Amino acid sequence: MIDAATKLGVPRYFFSSSVCVYRDMEPGEPALDEAAAYPAMPKNEYGWEKLYAERMALAYARHYPIEVRVARFQNCYGPEGTWCGGREKAPAAICRKVALAPTGGTIPVWGDGSAVRAYTYVDDMVEGIYTLMHSDLEGAASLPFSFADPTIIGGDEYVTVDQLVHTVIAASGKDIAIEHVEGPVGVHARNFDKSKIKSLGWEVHTSLRDGIQRTYDWIEEQVEAVEREESMHQ
């Protein structure tokens, strides 16, 4: 993609990376900034792939007349996203489980529920991308970084997986219990410094509670639509 964009004379190019380029962290660790991705030790191949693609895009920017912006996303979620099939993110998966469960029921949650994350509502993420793409490449002279390098976009409202689940349950209005089961949980914690994107005036405007409410309502509609369709074919 970056090669084709360069050959076509595209003046500015965006690559969506991920905070999965960082190493595993423990709860309570100091926040990492963009430079802390090196020495590189992503937890899985997805992180390595993103890190390599970042470097490829930035290498083209050094050798050709194309400006590149790289954003490292921190757990984007919201309506209109993937909500089933195995490729959905945790907020969508939990919303689906709760929507399918009857009140008084129980849903399975992988791990012990102690892993820590921050989730970024899609509207805030889009605003962050737009802000980054229209930023000055080098940034202000007083800033210790350049926007020619990767920029983390994400919120600062950190919660455990269990807290996320309880937020979804509250959005549903149901009485749902949690059963912790064995399963992949990813890294133990994430904690990042957002000074770089905030220096452009960007801030998160959507709380987790509000974002989850909108996401749950939409996923509940999808679940009900599928159930209606299935009942028609029985």
| Number of distinct beta strands | 9
Helical fraction: 25-40%
| Helix and strand composition category | alpha/beta
Superfamily (CATH H level) name: NAD(P)-binding Rossmann-like Domain
**Poorly predicted segments:** none
As for the number of domains, it is 1
N-to-C SSE string, H for helix and E for strand: HEHEEHEEEHEEHEHH
Q: What's the CATH C level? A: Alpha Beta
Task: Name the CATH architecture.
Answer: 3-Layer(aba) Sandwich
Return the average pLDDT rounded to an integer: 92
Major sheet characteristics: 3 strands, parallel
Silhouette = globular
Strand percentage lies at: 15-25%
Helices, by number, come to 7
Description:
- The protein is α/β, with parallel strands linked by helices and 234 residues long.
- It has a single domain, classed as 3-Layer(aba) Sandwich (Rossmann fold), CATH 3.40.50.
- It is 38% helix and 16% strand.
- The strands form four sheets. The chain has a three-stranded parallel β-sheet, sandwiched between helices. A two-stranded parallel sheet has the order 3-6.
- Helix 3 (90-100) crosses helix 5 (161-172).
- The radius of gyration is 20 Å and the shape is globular.
- It starts with a helix and ends with a helix.
- The mean pLDDT is 92.
